[in-house]
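The following block was generated as part of the benchmark described in Methods. Ligand: adenosine-2'-5'-diphosphate.
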Amino acid sequence: MVAQLPLLDGSSIPAIGLGLYKVPPAETGRVVADGLGAGYRLVDGAAMYGNEAEMGAAVREHGMRDAVQVVTKFWGDPEQSYDAALADFAASEERIGLDVVDGYMMHWPRAPRGTYVETWRAFQTLRDEGRVRWIAVASFGEAELQRLFDETGEWPVVNQVESHPWLPQHALRAFHARHGIVTQAWSPLGRGRLLDEPTLVAIADEVDATPAQVVLRWHLQLGGAAVPKSTHARRLAENLVEIAPLSDDAMARIAALESGVRTGTAPEDRP
Ligand code: A2P
């Protein structure tokens, strides 16, 4: 059973979900079916990933609709606005083919455009209409989160941000914790590039686990959630195994890996 993290709206999400970024559409059905079979209960999609239809079909076919949370995201090109969010959501809803989408996220703040607040109001409309259960954002910084709250009176329940031992995001995590926002990591394994880090390989060896399991345990121990991606059934299952808590010594050695290195786009580079 995957650990659950409480959301501000009183519901919860599994701490580990299945990330679908870079899963080719032709493989998505099989990957989601393998994931649900392994025990994943959250699938993290996005309009931009190009595999929403296959994600929705796989959840429907698996026959466990009520046990699984289906998440998708609003990309925001060519426009990020109230009307564009409503229109794009309608298209996502159609492709996914489920009565309700569990989580809807604003994929990027696109801060220079200054439209994330009006876009957030569209998210609130979708939630109030019952088409989405919970609303969230991705790659937001503190200032943007604060502005959403100041102008709309509502925090997103989740902020999905790039995070892994190279980029632990301590300050943002602390801000989230103060306000009850769940930190959910994208590229939680550093796109797999982190897994050869000698420190992680050594710790994995000491605790008789794999480097991926050590990194995912580190995420849980920071109190966060993560959406690791894999197209391999064996790895999907491996990533769901919650190993015993890491020692303070192991956590300190992982903390020393912080370098600020990103494996994906920085929010300011997505205008
Ligand atoms: P693959 O899809 O071929 O299994 P992130 O979630 O940080 O974006 O990392 C995803 C990358 O890490 C993918 O390249 C994926 O490869 C790889 N990966 C995921 N889980 C594991 C694992 N348990 N062991 C090794 N590589 C993994």
